[in-house]
Amino acid sequence: MTKRYELSELIRNDNFIDGQWVAAAKGNRFDVTNPATGEVIAQVADSDAADAHAATDAAARAFPTWRDTLPKDRAAVLHRWHALIVENADGLGRLISLEQGKPFSEGRGEVMYGASYVAWFADEATRIYGDIIPQQQRGKRMSAVKEPVGVVAAITPWNFPLAMIARKIAPALAAGCTVVGKPAEDTPLTAFALVMLAHEAGVPAGVLNLISASRENAVPAVADWLADSRVRKITFTGSTRVGKYLARESAGTLKKLSLELGGNAPFIVFDDADLDAAVTGLLAAKFRNGGQTCVSPNRVYVQSGVYERFADMLATRVAALKVAPATDPAAQIGPMINAPAIDKIARHVDDAASRGARVLTGGKRLPELGPNYYAPTVLADATPEMQLSCDETFGPIVPLFHFDDEAEAILAANDTLSGLASYFYSQDMRRIDRVTRQLEAGIVGINEGALASEAAPFGGVKESGYGREGSKYGLDDYLSIKYLCQGGLE
């Protein structure tokens, strides 16, 4: 029997270590604010290296028992956790809206999306197979088995405060690993609520530990995990800059790494595309969470023959989007996460306009709604010299670039250090095959703007990182392969 909690009951402001809610070792706290209003929602534990170390101590103690727990029993715990998440989808969705700003419909959608990973990996826990290697020498038997890597440190971003941590914790627990985690300082409350439900579902003490830390204390807290040889894997979603730091600083203990880093996604519209479908797909891909997603199209390339028509269609649809606080049931786009995010968006738009871009709609802040709102914007005549062509905007801005032929579009799309997602629209089957093979990205949307699924491998190439989350491949990142050779059989 699952329990439904009130929103106030879901809000926790202490660390969760070894099955207990505990204050930070030094007693410090920091504010979590509502980006729509700037009001303080809660004051949470401001942890440092001592708290991170205590979490690792608990996870290391719990690992042998959790590793040896039968897969079907680990799966049962995950299934109970999934049921609790679904039962509390409304409360969790409201909590996401409160601390992250996205409309409630998107917040609740994120809850169900995150829950899908828990259910998926609950089933995958019972499907961790090894191999019998064909005999090479008489009297010898060789096999390969998969084992959990050990203690996993999960570090997650603010834009999807439930889904990102769920799709890291769920495979780790399914594989038999124990977890220490730190959510983003902007959105720790949703992560704490998720851990509370995991504890309610029967995750044993020490198996799952979570600490929060301010921006100032996050580095020493994470640095403790990077230096601790008991932490065998780091899984991180966030910026490429931080991902490179983690890779460098963890090299001393040769940890396994999964890094899902920044994107600079191209979206290509060929002149044979279904333009209505392309506009709808672009809206879905770009404006989810107000453009604050790593797979949001950052550069939209439109073939010259359909450029003006597509631009007009898109601008009309974008101008009709409803910008409002998450408390407004009609809201389609909420506030951006904080003032630096708004400043970056404005800087990119101003730079583009100064270099000749035409503002077809938007292009301004919306102070009448609050400090962190920006109008959904379409910019025509974008060029590679503009900041937004090479720096991920992370906001509701759509720059439109011209191109003449397929080769030019492919060259422009791949002209980036990132390689997370790419999209294109075409009805020519031969072109679809050619373009799919040539795009340098870990994820490709073909006549489709909504790509994420728990059954699919999510991750990038180039400086967008390595490793995959979701799907059967997502479990492998939490496992190591042990080769067994038994002799003297004859």
* Strand fraction: 15-25%
Q: What name does CATH use for the topology of the largest domain? A: Aldehyde Dehydrogenase, Chain A, domain 1
Radius of gyration: 23 Å
Which architecture of the largest domain would the CATH scheme give at its second level?
3-Layer(aba) Sandwich
Count of discrete domains: 2
Structural class comes to alpha/beta
| Relative helix content | 25-40%
Secondary structure: number of strands: 20
Poorly predicted sequence stretches spanning 5 or more consecutive residues: none
Quick one: CATH class of the largest domain? Alpha Beta
In short:
The protein is α/β, with parallel strands linked by helices. The protein has helices at 7-10, 49-68, 71-87, 89-100, 104-124, 163-175, 188-201, 215-227, 240-249, 275-287, 307-319, 339-354, 406-414, 429-438, 473-476; strands at residues 15-17, 20-22, 29-33, 40-45, 131-133, 141-148, 151-155, 178-182, 208-210, 231-237, 256-260, 265-269, 297-303, 358-361, 377-380, 397-403, 421-425, 443-446, 465-466, 479-486. Helix 3 packs antiparallel against helix 6 and helix 3 (71-87) crosses helix 7.
